[in-house]
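Two quick folds needed for the group meeting slides. Do the first one here.
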Amino acid sequence: MQIELNQPGALLKTDGRLAQIGWSRQPLLDCNLEAARFYSMRLFQSLRIKRWDYYAIITPRGFFSATIADLGYAGNLFVYAMDFETGELHEEGLVIPLRKNIQLPRNSTEGDSHFKNKKVSLDFHVETTHRKISVTWPNFHSGRGIQAEIILDCPPGYESMAIVIPIGKKRFYYNRKINCLPAEGTIHYGDSIEILDPTTCSGSLDWGRGVWEYQSYWNWASSSGFLPDGRSV
């Protein structure tokens, strides 16, 4: 049976087990990953904890997404860009040894996600009423280049879905997805510039933290759109 969580608290108990299991409409749990206890030698635990912030933007012309991820032993950055008219999809990523220069916040409700080196700069910033995405990747798609400055409207109390899933006794997956965030700003991709209209452009966040087995996989899908009368679904 699915259990809806209503009480705030810590994600993990002091012994590393999940304090609550289920789903919630708001991010109620503090992501205290420092309490994880899945290895007897705690020195190695940080190499297995996974964290990421993934933002996606859907516009009438295309799809854009950017991710900052900390895999424990390395960092991973990637950007997607798709043109709906031509069907062209391009993806590029960077693996960052020892996750150098990667910054991710403790929780999904506040803080900054950041990475910058000589090749690329990604910044995700959370404010009280909105989220700001800044991406600069000059050599994306063999020098075509991509740059985005996007603001997603996300007022306090905006409903989302958070899930807490156990994996064995002391492994887990904590995730939050926020959909239907009105998007405004610009995306510069090569010679084209797209100006985002919040009445037709929508953003989403996939925020994940957890520890799972060496061999794991999952399938997921997320869809956001607009009805003819302008309401989002």
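Then this one, please, same format:
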Amino acid sequence: MFRHLVLTRPLAVIDLETTGIDVKKDRIVEISVLKIWPDGTRKHHTRLLNPTIPIPEEATAFHGFTDADVANEKTFVQIADGLERFLNGCDLCGFNLRRYDMRLLYAEFKRAGIDWNLEGRSIVDPLEIYHHYEKRDLTSAVKFYLNRDHEGAHGAMADVLATEALIDAMLEKYAKLPRNVENLSQFFTDPNKVDFEGKFKSINGVVQFTFGKCRGQPLTAVAANDRRYLEDFLLNAPDFPEDAKDIIRLALEQVQSVPSRGVG
């Protein structure tokens, strides 16, 4: 029961575990909804779902669910009507709900043939509250870790000196962090990433896609069989990272340099 939040109608607190973060392509693997009425009555339902698409290894590493775990579970389409009724008339709440969970849930309802009506619903997202009060810029970090104002903020020299002091203060505060540069870097780096954003990962020495329709496929195989997708779509996309484009170009060059085998 909330001690400080006043409810005028039911509030549904929602969390999803999914196959990935692409709202258009990914699916729900687990859904949990806690429904709280203004009088304090609570109903909490949690269930696994068969996403109908493979669960990537990186998603399993995050939430622990494998294809085998969900093989015999119902699909979202099978529970959509009941879920829509359970959420009917509810305001919504969830961590990062507005940017992700709500959008994916809306897409799932759409695929199930249900126009989920969000009109008039209030949305409470703790992540928005967190980011509003706990700023994430250098000035705020200096205040939090060094307990002083950041004089000369946004000047390059002042920012560099503040960053130097911040690193030392963070290492003092978080005793489990590594104390040398190499290990500290590795602490926050996925060793399988081959580009800055992790569009591609090296799995057992094979560079694979981590996104989109080719997720899990070797880059060289896509370069050999779907060159047009790489050249016309990804390489021409203005918002696709340049370092990832360089990896694609290298794969295309490697495939082109391999002589084709004649028939004889």
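Slide caption for protein two: The first helix runs from residue 57 to 63.
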